[in-house]
């Protein structure tokens, strides 16, 4: 068993404790940027490395240009005007770091199987620039075993004689960002940390304790990877449950939203989850597929999780089917209809469009021949995603515009939307978020919940 008296390890832990140290973060997106701000606020020098030159240019501008608005302008000004922060596209800067944190996407491929290309490319960027006594942590959500296997492979290849836990240290710590959450900040959310070995785990705990209020060490990287998968699969399963019950109760003439409101009055044994037009964000729509893929790979089954995936991925189509049926009742074929989708972001009051079900709703409607626009005050133009490049711009939510559509489809319930205006002017409202609940009494059959 590896001893803990390694000099490099002791020096690294001491440096993370209170001494000057440099933290490099690969990926300055929804996870990496708030993490960079957290370590900068803790007194560390921070190097942000991102392949997108627009991000480093955003910090070089005076004033800096916020590209993730929900974080607030202070994040950009704190970093941009500091001598302890550098945003760059140059991976050579990784060699200057005492710790390297990897915060890159882990999407699904066309077959709904894990795409670890960003993780592997990050490891390949680190490998030739590694130095002894360095800590490397993967934060990207993935399946158990990724850190020890796929992520480690390029590092071992670059330095085959170096021993992890002695010459350098490797751990996994899952990101727990919730964009737009006002109750919990990056540093107030407990940080789970698991090393590939005991010294790596100790070093990672020391690093995160520098910036986070609470660090939760676990025995291995695999436990930390599994914890993140469990957290998001738990949510996906419960959302699938209410999505399925929404369909069942609707067939009985029962409002799922009222049912949930009644059930959540129970002070124990129940946690409310809410239906919607599909899952969005980077984690919940993806992580259960990672776990079910791994289960098949090792020769086991995860039938419950696979069912969850099927239920949630069919929701956009169900919403569009409901919309088409309601238009048909009113004598309008969906192929000749004009539809306004309210909200492109995957959740309210943020500008995060990742994996948003709105994209799929728009695509389904267009495939049926409908003329489709969207309105979102936080996303004036669609940004290209790995799957979609629709090149659409938000239209203004005005009375005249609303009157020009055969149907308004509420996909995201932003608080900035004028729902009174929608209620007064829309011919038909298909509401997937219960956003029009206070108008239901007088809208009559112009309001349909889906």
Highlighted features:
single chain; 450 residues; alpha/beta; Rossmann fold; 3 domains; eight-stranded mixed sheet; five-stranded parallel sheet; 39% helix; 12% strand; globular
Q: Can you give a write-up of this model?
A:
There is one protein chain. The relative contact order is 0.09. The longest helix is centred in the middle third of the chain and has 31 residues, at 221-251. This protein has three domains: 7-219, 3-Layer(aba) Sandwich (Rossmann fold), CATH 3.40.50.720; 239-313, Rossmann fold (3-Layer(aba) Sandwich); 314-450, Rossmann fold, CATH 3.40.50.720. The protein has helices spanning 7-18, 32-41, 53-60, 73-80, 117-126, 147-158, 198-211, 221-251, 256-263, 287-297, 303-313, 315-329, 357-367, 399-403, 419-425, 440-443, and strands spanning 22-26, 45-49, 85-88, 99-102, 135-138, 169-172, 191-195, 215-218, 338-342, 371-375, 407-410, 429-431, 447-449. An eight-stranded mixed β-sheet has the order 3-2-1-4-5-6-7-8, sandwiched between helices. The protein has a five-stranded parallel β-sheet with strand order 10-9-11-12-13, covered by helices on one side. Helix 8 (221-251) crosses helix 10 (287-297), helix 8 crosses helix 11 and helix 12 packs across helix 13. Helix content is 39%, strand content 12%. It is built from 16 helices and 13 strands. Helix 16 (440-443) links the parallel strand 12 and strand 13 (447-449). The model has no long low-confidence stretch (mean pLDDT 94). By secondary structure, the protein is α/β, with parallel strands linked by helices.
């Amino acid at each position: 068993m590896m001893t803990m008296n390694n000099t490099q390890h002791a020096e690294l832990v001491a440096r993370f404790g209170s001494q000057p140290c440099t933290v490099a973060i690969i990926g300055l997106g929804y996870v990496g940027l708030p993490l960079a701000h957290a370590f900068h606020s803790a007194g560390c020098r921070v190097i942000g490395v991102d392949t997108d030159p627009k991000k480093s240019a955003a910090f070089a501008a005076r004033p800096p240009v916020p590209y993730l608005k929900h974080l607030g302008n202070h994040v950009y000004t704190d970093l941009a005007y500091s001598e302890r922060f550098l945003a760059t596209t140059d991976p050579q800067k990784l060699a200057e770091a005492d710790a390297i944190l990897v915060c890159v996407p882990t999407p699904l491929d066309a077959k709904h199987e894990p795409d670890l290309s960003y993780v592997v490319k990050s490891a390949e960027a680190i490998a030739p620039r590694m130095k002894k006594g360095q800590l490397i942590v993967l934060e990207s959500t993935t399946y158990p075993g990724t850190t020890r296997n796929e992520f480690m492979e390029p590092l071992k290849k670059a330095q085959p004689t170096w021993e992890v836990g002695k010459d350098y240290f490797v751990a996994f710590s899952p990101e727990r960002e919730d964009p737009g959450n006002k109750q919990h900040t990056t540093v107030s959310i407990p940080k789970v940390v698991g090393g590939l070995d005991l010294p790596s785990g100790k070093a990672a705990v020391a690093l995160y304790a520098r910036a986070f209020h609470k660090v939760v060490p676990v025995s291995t990287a695999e436990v930390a990877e599994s914890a993140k998968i469990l957290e998001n699969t738990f949510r996906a399963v419960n959302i699938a449950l209410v999505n399925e019950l929404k369909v069942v109760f609707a067939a009985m003439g029962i409002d799922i939203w009222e049912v949930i409101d009644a059930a959540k009055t129970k002070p124990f044994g129940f946690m409310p989850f809410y239906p919607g037009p599909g899952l969005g964000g980077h984690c919940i729509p993806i992580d259960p597929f990672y776990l079910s893929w791994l289960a098949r790979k090792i020769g086991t089954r995860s039938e419950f999780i696979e069912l969850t995936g099927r239920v949630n991925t069919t929701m956009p189509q169900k919403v569009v089917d409901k919309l088409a049926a309601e238009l048909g009742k009113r004598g309008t074929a969906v192929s000749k209809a004009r539809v306004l989708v309210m909200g492109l972001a995957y959740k309210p009051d943020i500008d995060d469009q990742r994996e948003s079900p709105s994209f799929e709703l728009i695509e389904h409607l267009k495939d049926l021949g409908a003329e489709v626009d969207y309105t979102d005050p936080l996303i004036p133009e669609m940004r290209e995603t790995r799957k979609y490049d629709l090149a659409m711009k938000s239209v203004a939510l005005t009375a005249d515009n609303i009157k020009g559509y055969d149907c308004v489809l509420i996909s995201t319930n932003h608080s900035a939307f004028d729902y009174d205006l929608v209620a007064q002017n829309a011919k038909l409202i298909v509401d997937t978020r219960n956003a029009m609940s206070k108008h239901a009494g007088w809208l009559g059959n112009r309001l349909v919940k889906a």
